[in-house]
Each structure stands twice: as C-alpha cells, then as structure tokens.
Design a protein that fits this description.
- This protein is of the alpha/beta class and 433 residues long.
- It has a 5-stranded parallel beta sheet, with helices on both faces.
- A hairpin with a 5-residue loop joins β6 and β7.
- α3 crosses α12.
C-alpha cells in the first residue's frame, strides 16, 4: 500500500512539474524583443493618430533596447477588435511582423455600459487576433487594453457621470484583455491602468480643464499618448538602461557603457559620442501644455523605468559638498552624494539637452514613414481584393502596385533609421564649494 501511495504521489508531482514547466515556457516574462524584430502596432483611431506608435518607434530607433528594431502601424479609425480580425490576414500579416501589439476596446464598448454580448464579442475577437498572429509565426504578442476617456472632457464635459460610466466599461474590457493574454500565454499592456493613474495627477496639477485624454475626451494629445507608449514599452520588456558615463574628477579617467564611445577625458570634463539617445520630451516643464510630453513624464515613472542615462562622478575632494554639472549649454547643481551614486541626466535635464535636436530629426523621419503607412494600408492594400474581383485580368498590375507601395514604405523606414546619427556631447563637472 505504501508503494502504491508513493507511486501516486510521484506521478502527481511529475504532472505538477510538467504543468509548471509549461507555464514557464509560455510565460510572457520570457518573451523579449530580439535584434531585427519588426513590430506591428495595431489599433483603432487612437493608434491611427500616430502618436504613441511614433513614440514607440522613437524608442526603438534612438534608445535602442535592441539593435535594428523596426515598426509599422496599422491604425484604423472607428475600428473594433473584430474589425481588425477580419482584415489582418490581408492587411497586416503580409508585412511578416515578428512582434505585434494590439490596442482595441474604445469602440468595442459602444460608449455605453457593458453587456454580456459586448464582453463575449470582445473576448472572442481578441483571442482570435492572438491565435491568428500565432499561426502566422509572430513570436511575441502584446495584448494592450483600451485607454480611458477624459474625466472632464468626455461628451464636452456636460455629463461627468458619462465619463465615469464609460471608464467603468473600459475597465471591464481591460480585465478581459488581461484574461485573454494570460490564457494565451502572451504579454499584456495595462494602458487603462497607466492612464487612469496618471489622469487625476495631471488634473490635480493643471486643473480640471487640462485635456489628458484629448479635447474630445477620447483621442489623447501627445501627453496621453506618452503614457500609452510607456505601458507598451514596459510590456515589450524594455529595461530602460540607456547608458552610464563615469568620470573620475581627480584623475580625469572616464568610462562609458555600451552604445557610447569616449572621445576625450580630463579632470572635470568628458566628451562622448553616443549612438544610444535618451528619450527626449517636448514642451516647457510646468507649462501644462497637453500638446507636449514633458509634464506627463512627471506623472509616470518614465525616466526611472525607461530612460536612465546616468552620470557617476568619482574622485571628489572630501570637502566638496556640491558639484555643478554642465551638459551642453545647461548647468545644474547636485549634492556630491547624489553624483557619486549616479544622477539620471535624462531626468535632470529634460529641456534642451544635447540630444534634443537630433531626436526631433529622427522623429520627423519616423512620422514621414508612419504617415505613408496609413494610406498605403487603408486605401491600397485593403482595397486590392475588391479590385481583383472587379478586374481579375489586372491582378498582376494590382500586385505590382502593392509591391511598389511596400518598397516605398521600406525606403522611408530606412531613411528614418539613417536619420539617427551618433551625437557628440560634453559633460563638465566642477566643485561648487
């Protein structure tokens, strides 16, 4: 009897171990971006705004969490999860993405309270999208939740209860998206949670009239889109380590981490050429501009978790209590203890740092690429099957048009990548007292 019990216990333990290993193997924590990944960014009109999708590609090309990343956005105004499911094989999969993100739910909820039918349709369609991506060989999938509607701008702010009602619906859709991601063993981006946490902070600082989720209450400006990008970049596994520059104030010796090359060093001064940029924000700090990103970065741990470009100073005289750092044309003072531990330059110099102009140049090229992608997909690629039905004898001509469109898109993507050139910058450190 004891042998039988032992055998049964052993079998149960073995089954449990196999199940645990299976969970580990499909765990989103083990899915990571890889060199050369092409990321499909899919969603509704909020994605078609080409804001968070641009910020994500900014991060890929300039902050470089992995080498040679690229992205293509498939936003479509008014779309639902089931709408994308119906068109994804024709419109998205031919681009052969290796990674994909989704952001549906804003339209799926119907701008009204949740019902069982809505919940089922969204769940089934979201699961269908994940399965279709998997069948096409997409290695890494991030199911994103919908965002939020603005607590004071939705429906012109005439009925605050309406915003509360619809955010409840969006929260329920967020829960469904998370459940599907868990069931399918893919990653999840809690866009709703990040925006819902940041919005009251922004309203408290800048007033109820501050448009966090857009002037229409639905389509965010760059401020809200930065929060969306933050949620997706975290779900994509970006670790935020941009680089570290170490300078010995006494000897003038310096070190630079991967992605940064020392040009020269001397006591109190180091010149560096950086291939990896810190993420750069727009606007003036404290201005409360919904069309800028600089204030929103203070509402979320963007710099702490995604944008760490550290300066570490060693060899400081024992009597020195404060040090002045000049980076580019801007100077700031820091406690010696802070600099010896390491100061995040990206957070300390958010305005006008030496990367700002180069970052904008790269972003402009990225916007040119994504601005072309929208009509390419919506007006040409999506319509080709209908034209082939009407003019089957011109199928080869239509295929050639699509091929030419994709080739131009690839040229624009290559131009965006080429626009990101190394930045040479100087950091000076001197004792204040």
């Amino acid at each position: 009897m004891k042998r039988i019990r032992v055998a049964r216990v052993a079998r149960v333990a073995l089954v449990a171990l196999v199940a645990l290993l299976a969970l580990v193997l499909i765990s989103p924590a083990f899915a990571q971006l890889k060199e050369g990944d092409r990321v499909a960014i899919t969603g509704d009109s909020i994605t078609e705004q080409k804001q968070y999708s641009v910020f994500i590609q900014d991060y890929f090309l300039m902050c470089k969490p992995k080498p040679n990343l690229s992205a293509i956005q498939f936003g479509w105004g008014g779309e639902t999860s089931w709408g994308f499911l119906a068109r994804m094989k024709n419109d998205a999969l031919p681009f052969q993405p290796t990674v994909a993100t989704t952001c549906y739910g804003m339209n799926d909820g119907g701008y009204s309270p949740m019902t069982e039918d809505k919940a089922k349709r969204y769940r089934d369609a979201t699961r269908g999208i994940v399965k279709t991506f998997k069948e096409a060989g997409v290695r890494f999938i991030v199911v994103g939740s919908p965002g939020v509607v603005d607590s004071t701008k939705f429906r012109r702010g005439e009925n605050p209860a309406a915003a509360e009602m619809y955010n409840k619906t969006l929260g329920e859709l967020r829960n469904i998206a998370r459940e599907v991601a868990t069931e399918e063993g893919v990653s999840f981006a809690d866009v709703y949670g990040a925006m819902m946490e940041a919005m009251p902070k922004a309203k408290a600082k800048f007033g109820d009239d501050y448009a966090f989720a857009g002037g229409d209450g639905v389509h965010p400006g760059p401020n809200g889109h930065l929060v969306m990008a933050y949620a997706f970049l975290k779900a994509l596994g970006c670790d935020g380590d941009i680089g570290t520059i170490t300078l010995d104030l006494g000897t003038g010796q310096a070190e630079a981490s991967e992605g940064h090359t020392l040009v020269s060093a001397a006591p109190g001064r180091v010149e560096v050429e950086s291939g990896k940029y810190p993420f750069c924000f727009t606007g003036k700090s404290g201005g409360g501009d919904a069309g800028a990103t600089i204030d929103t970065a203070q509402m979320i741990p963007f710099n702490e978790e995604l944008n760490r470009f550290k300066l570490v100073v060693k060899g400081v005289p024992a009597s020195a209590q404060r040090l002045r750092v000049t980076w580019g044309e801007t100077s700031k003072e820091f406690a010696t203890a802070d600099l010896t531990a390491g100061v995040n330059l990206a957070a300390a110099f958010p305005e006008g740092n030496p990367f700002a102009l180069s970052f904008k140049r790269g972003e402009d090229a990225i916007r040119a690429q994504q601005n072309f992608e929208t009509p390419l997909v919506k007006r040409l690629i999506n319509a080709v099957p209908q034209y082939k039905e009407m003019l089957p004898e011109e199928a080869a001509t239509l295929d050639k048009l699509v091929e030419a469109g994709r080739a131009k898109r690839d040229k624009l993507a290559a131009a965006a990548k080429a626009a990101v050139e190394p930045v040479r910058h100087t950091i000076k450190v001197e004792v204040v007292n």
